[in-house]
Amino acid sequence: MKIDFGTCHIKETPNCKGPWVNTMSVRLKDGREITLDRDQTEYTVNEDGTMTMEWLGVYIWDGENPDYNINKSMMDGAKIISIEIEEDADSDYDLIVNNSQVQFLF
């Protein structure tokens, strides 16, 4: 699975360029909350302070083992709860994701 985040707004700092994203929490339509992580991030930062970002090799992260067993029906109707910024990012670094642009692709 991959996730296309569409156009995000980014506030970079001298020490934090590009996406400083750790994980993403989502609520599935059955009410369960899961944490997603990925093997690879592809992104482009634009001159206007926006960024496009895709996560490739997305998996469910339970804190110990990656679970790549994600199917389309599981993610239908999933809602983003939060996106965790890396803990060592500068305090004034910010990334704003437009949830309506995020696509879960299979």
Structural summary, described in words:
It is a single chain. With 106 residues, this protein is mostly beta strands. The protein has one domain (2-105). The protein contains one helix and ten strands; from the N terminus they run E-E-E-E-E-E-E-H-E-E-E. The protein has one helix spanning 72-75; strands at 2-11, 21-27, 33-37, 40-45, 50-56, 59-61, 66-67, 79-85, 94-96, 103-105. The strands form two sheets. Strands 1, 4, 5, 9 and 10 form a five-stranded antiparallel β-sheet that branches. It has a five-stranded antiparallel β-sheet with strand order 7-6-3-2-8, with no helix packed on it. A hairpin with a 5-residue loop joins strand 2 and strand 3 (33-37). The longest helix has 4 residues, at 72-75. It starts with a strand and ends with a strand.
Question: What fraction of the residues are assigned to beta strands by DSSP?
Answer: over 45%
Number of domains: 1
Query: Which blocks of ≥5 consecutive residues have pLDDT under 50?
Result: none
Query: How would you sum up the major sheet?
Result: 5 strands, antiparallel
The helix/strand order is: EEEEEEEHEEE
Number of strands: 10
Counting copies of identical and different chains, the oligomeric state is single chain
Measured as a percent range, the helix fraction is: under 10%
SSE class? mainly beta
How would you sum up the global shape? globular
- Rg measurement, Å: 14 Å
Q: Gap between N and C termini, in Å?
A: 5 Å
Tally of helical runs: 1
Q: Tell me, rounded to a whole number, the average pLDDT.
A: 96
